[in-house]
Structures are given as C-alpha cells and as structure tokens.
Amino acid sequence: MAEDLRLEDNLAFAMASKCADDGLAVVRIAPEARGRPRRTPLRLELEDAAERRIGKQLGALGIAFELVGPENIMSLAATCRRLQCTSVIRNAADGMAIENGYRIAWEQELQSANIPFLTVNGEMIRRLGPGGAKPDRPFLSDDRLVESDKLPEDHPILLLRAFLQELPERNYLADMWTPGRDRASSSLLSTHFAAGTLSSDRAIWETVKAERLWKAANPDRSRSTEGASFRHFRSRIGMRTGFMTLFSRYQDKTPHIAFNDAQEGRVRAWREGRTGIPMPDAAMRELATTGWINFRLRQLVTSYGVQLLQLPAAEVGGALAEMFNDYEPGITWLQVGLNDGTIMQDRGPRILNPVKQGHDLDPSETYIRHWLPELETVPAGFGHEPWLWLKNPLPAPMVDHKAAYREARRRWGGKDQALVPRGEVTRTHGLPSSAGATTPIG
Ligand SMILES: Cc1cc2nc3c(=O)[nH]c(=O)nc-3n(C[C@H](O)[C@H](O)[C@H](O)COP(=O)(O)OP(=O)(O)OC[C@H]3O[C@@H](n4cnc5c(N)ncnc54)[C@H](O)[C@@H]3O)c2cc1C
Fold first, then answer.
1. Is residue 94 part of a domain?
2. Closest Cα to atom 47, ligand 1: which residue?
C-alpha cells in the first residue's frame, strides 16, 4: 500500500485476496519511506486514522498488517521472509523520479530473493512505468461491500456521500473561488484523495448515482444550476486523474526540492505571508494555519511567488508541497509549471495582479482583515493597498506590484501579442482534455 490507503476499491488488495489460498499480509509503506516531503499534522492525523481503521478491518479478517516507515524500511525482502510471503502485488504509485527509484530498488531486491513483484494500475492513471498500462476500466469494489451500514463510521466514503447529499444546496461552482464561502461550497476531500483513503473513480461513480437519484426526485430542476453541480464536481475529479496521468510524462523534469541561500529571506517572507501585499500574504497565512486554500488562491500565491517575486519555481513548489494537506506531486508540480510557463507555453504563464485579485475576490476586505489583524488601524477601502494610507502597519511591499507585473509580462511578450518566452522552456502540448473541459485549469 502506498497512495491507496484503503481496502475498498483497491485492485492490488482484491487480486491478492483472490489468489492467496494460504494467507496474505498487507504492508503499508509510509510516504517518508518513499522519499516524499514531510506530511502536515492534519495529513498525518488522517493517515494514522486510516491505518488504524485498516488494521481493525484486516484484524477482523485474520490478515497481518504492518506499517513500514523510514526507520524500519531496511529490506522489503526481509519483511516478506518474516511474513512468509512468496509474491508481492503493489498498486502503481505517483510518477516522481524519487518514488520510481525506490520501486526499482525494491524490484531488484525482490528479484534477487526470487520473490515475484507485480505492480497494478487500478485507477487508470499513471500510464508510464510498470503497472502503468491503461486498463479497460477502473477497478471498483462491488457496491454491496461499501453500503453505508457496512463501513466504519469514520470512513471517507461516508464523508463523500454526506457531501453529495448537500451538493445541490451548495453554490459549488460560484463559491469555490471565494474566500469565506469556499469551505462551505467545495468538498474539502482533496486530502483523502491525495492520501488514497478515497479513490477518484469511487467518487465519480458515487456522484453519478447521487445525480441520478436527485434528478429523478427533482425532474423539473434537472437543468438548473443545482442540477449542474454534480457535473461540475465530476469534472473537477476528472482533472485530478488527468493531471496525474499527464504527470508521468514529466517525471524526469520534476525539479529538485532545493533551497538557495541567497533567496531564503524572500522565500521565507512569501511563505510566512509577510511580503507587504495583503491578498497573497493572507492566503499564505491561511495555508500555514489550516493546510488548505482554494484553487484560485493557490494560483495567486504561486503566480505571485514565481512571476512577481521571481522566486525559483522549485522553491515555491517545494514550500507548497510541505504546506498542503493534500499535496499531490502530479497536481502541484504541473500547476507550478503552468504558473511559471514551462508547461502550456503557447498560452503563456499565469501572471496575476495580486492587488486586482484582492479587490475581485475580497471586495469587503473581510478575508484579508481576518488573516492580517495588523490591518485593523487601516480604514476601509485601503485594505488591499495599505501603503496608500498615511501609516502602513505592514512591511513595505517587497515589490512594486505594478512594475513587477509589467516586467513579468515583458519577459513573456506584450499583453495583446502572442506570448513568446525569452528563456529556454519545455514545449509541451496536450494537457488532459478532462483537465480543461468546463473550467479553465489555470
Ligand atoms: C498551484 C496549485 C497547486 C495545487 N496542488 C494541489 C495538490 O497538491 N493536491 C490537490 O489535490 N489539488 C491541488 N490543486 C488543485 C485544487 O486547488 C485542489 O484540488 C482543490 O482546491 C481541493 O479542494 P476540494 O477538495 O474542496 O476540491 P473540490 O472542488 O471539492 O473538488 C473535488 C476534487 O477534485 C480534484 N480537483 C479539484 N480541482 C482540481 C484542479 N484544479 N486540479 C486537479 N484536481 C482538482 C481534487 O482531488 C478535489 O478534492 C492545486 C492547484 C494549484 C493552482
């Protein structure tokens, strides 16, 4: 088990259960033991709870369950010998070069120990590498196994069902961007998806079923905004699998997570929300406190860091990887690439004006004032540009945002002409069609 921290909708577990006549053991290899960045406290809590849940479920079936962390990763072959396992089946994991390095090492080790090792791809994602062949259809457990009364009460499928019940009452598409209303409109399930405690295919299938039921009960509202929320939610989940499938093509280009001393002060100020420009600063403080910000704010802080502050993209992505509860390499690194212009070059990078975004997304200044209490002394109307008021309680802005914005546009060509990068970038096309189907990905 890696990014598949569940027994339901788990192809490797289902295959192993089917062919293990004389027993089976389950081993969970923790992210740190696979070279992933540190997990946030909430992510750890959620994964610990999942491990306890799985331990109980397996215990009831008489199946051994072992956790392998960086401290006891020593040898997978030794673990197999101890558990008397004669073959290993594993779900395909993400396409990070570092993760692949671990897989190759385990494969070689098990091969020399004469233990067959099979990698399977149950979620129709991650097409490259072993287990990457695209199956005809995703693997899902029988619906009867995941009936609500059969699942432990803390199971994420139950959270998903509760969200789908409320989805038509939420203003999903309009409010997901809006600070203050975002958490009440979107599912907040991304940490479950990223941890693998919930499968994306399960989410799509449950949404299809909930949509059918709702439309049957509300025939006159099927074309309404409420009815469309199911489609929009499915399309967002489709983006997730689209990004992850695409990511395998970029695995070798994944930047190293390395910090550069000279820029440390700027990176720290950006990361801690102390650059003097309220909207991105507030978003970074929300992220540092809660581990989650909405999609538009993620774009804003990334574009601001990479384009206006000119921080190295690897450092921006590296910090986000440590701060997001839902860190998923396939999404974060492609999004950073979209923001720095190395991906989808024809469209150019996302260059956002942080002050304009502030006025658009938070016209009442409620959001910035919540996360930057220092603004208390600044009168209404000046919150997004406190340097225009007589006494600015924030540090002076680290950049003149207008000049930095113009400079960023100039680096890529004028606003109205085709964007032409000056530096050497990777020319790539073909973001997954699902990624841009109804809502722009960037
Ligand atoms: C720079 C940047 C980095 C990002 N990094 C991550 C990341 O590491 N992990 C992550 O899960 N999402 C990432 N996203 C995408 C998106 O912001 C989050 O998935 C979303 O905000 C999670 O909230 P939610 O679960 O309430 O989403 P919902 O609106 O409820 O959507 C349901 C699910 O669909 C998927 N999804 C939604 N939007 C996107 C999207 N734009 N791209 C891909 N999948 C999407 C997620 O799995 C999400 O849980 C990133 C976006 C940007 C701009």
1. yes
2. 190
pLDDT digits (tens, 9 = 90+) for 197-216: 999 999 999 999 999 999 99
- Residue ranges lining ligand 1, Cβ < 6 Å: 176, 186-190, 193-194, 236-237, 239-240, 243, 294-295, 298-299, 302, 324, 326-328, 331-332, 335-336, 441
In a domain, 132, yes or no: no
pLDDT of residue 344 exceeding 70, the answer is no
What is the tally of structural domains in the chain? 3
Backbone angles phi, psi at 290, to 5 degrees: -115, -20
| 9-23, 27-41, 328-342, 383-397 — most confident range | 383-397
115 shares a domain with 33:
yes
Q: Which helix (H) or strand (E) holds 28?
A: strand 25-29
Higher-confidence residue: 132 or 316? 316
Confidence of residue 194 (pLDDT cuts 50, 70, 90): very high
How far, CA to CA in Å, does 385 sit from each of 207, 259, 309, 432? Answer: 42, 30, 17, 38
Q: Write the DSSP symbol of residue 391.
A: S
> Is 0.85 surpassed by the pTM of this model?
yes
Separation of CA 283 and ligand 1 centre (Å)? 16
Please give the distance, rounded to the nearest whole angstrom, from the Cα atom of residue 12 to the centre of ligand 1. Answer: 26
For residue 271, give both structure tokens.
């990361």
Tell me, what's the pLDDT at 53? Answer: 95
Note whether 87 and 184 are same-domain residues.
no
Structure tokens at 321: 């990887």
Residue 367 contacts residue 180 (beta carbons within 8 Å):
yes
Residues 304 and 346 in one domain: yes
Give the mutation target among 236, 286, 333 for probing the ligand 1 site: most ligand atoms within 8 A of CB: 236
> Given this model, what pLDDT does residue 432 score?
35
